[in-house]
Amino acid sequence: MAAGGAEDPSLERHFRGHRDAITSVDFSLNKKQLASGSMDSCLKIWSMKPQMRAYCLVGHKDAVMCVQFSPSGHLVASGSRDKTVCLWVPSVKGESTVFKAHTATVRSVHFSSDGQSLVTASDDKTIKVWTVHRQKFLFSLSQHINWVRCARFSPDGRLIASASDDKTVKLWDKTSRECIHSFCEHGGFANHVEFHPSGTCIAAAGTDKTVKVWDVRMNRLLQHYQVHTAAVNSLSFHPSGNYLITASNDSTLKILDLLEGRLLYTLHGHQGPATCVAFSRTGDFFASGGSDEQVMVWKTNFSAADYDGVLKTHKSGATVDGTHHRLPSEMDCGVHLKKTKSQDTGRNHERQEEDVHLADTLEHIIGQLDVLTQTVSILEQRLTLTENKLKEFLENQQKIIQNKEN
Description:
Layout lengths: L9 E7 L5 E6 L5 E6 L4 E5 L7 E3 L6 E6 L6 E5 L3 E5 L7 E5 L5 E6 L5 E6 L4 E5 L5 E5 L6 E6 L5 E6 L4 E5 L4 E6 L6 E6 L5 E6 L4 E5 L4 E6 L6 E6 L5 E6 L3 E6 L4 E7 L5 E6 L5 E6 L3 E6 L7 H7 L4 E3 L4 E2 L19 H60 L1
């Protein structure tokens, strides 16, 4: 493939072997193995060494919806449409422990950072927490009113974030087992949620084509991205916390620059929906899966160290598809960056730079106003709901008084 600059992400290799859509991908700690789950009911462990065959771990009786390596890399957890969770030893033997976790499809599995706990999410509308070594059920969280697509522990293990088809992203306190906040800004199903490496923010992907980032300390919306043209299925934070990668039904992967609040790269590789994406633990690679039955491994080629260089080279977002490069004028929230031709005189050039700077500032203000408008709209809806409930309460009180008088 034609790799552009040295700092551009590049497709390293792709794995074929699944016979249906890929649902989930995850790297082991040492990057020697990559796990993938598929609608074909099979979990595969791919070796990153050339010419090494993949292990096919067979045990689930239906589609494998999610996979994740334990922090140590000694175990792989998987969840399935057969309502079970499996804990596998990622080897040729593929020894596993199976336990019936839920009463419906298991959509998500996630280990705590100490590897001691496992959180699962299901179409039975619940989130469950388990001990890993004995697979002992600890407790259930059940305030969602529709399928729960994803659940994640915070890096310190004190919080759990969940994303649901009830259009909410919920934040739970693991100790008190209570929902401490519900984020209701998504206009569609919330497909995926992840904690920022610092633990101070969460990002969620939705069927409304958006990605939203919230501060979990202040419970407020920080960033709103609308860079995809179809539902966003999955996302993953770079370990530096500076970048977020997303996978969408529009067949693209997009890398967002969180510090600048803009689109940095658009990657084309999958034929059809890109269903899942995940950075490696060190961030130098990321993997993606699609409905085209392919697992792709990409080299990141950029990091916090060369961040400034990448930003200067790709002010408006680069497109990488293995065959050509172009620079579309895409930015956060679909706003176009205005490019200008260089002038002969220094004065005109300076004036032009000022115009571009002003345009950028105005575009940023417009983006922030859009977020404020959405927030006000949500507050108005909640106020209307409160007013209706108050009105209903007063009417009921009046009826009670009338009945007592009669």
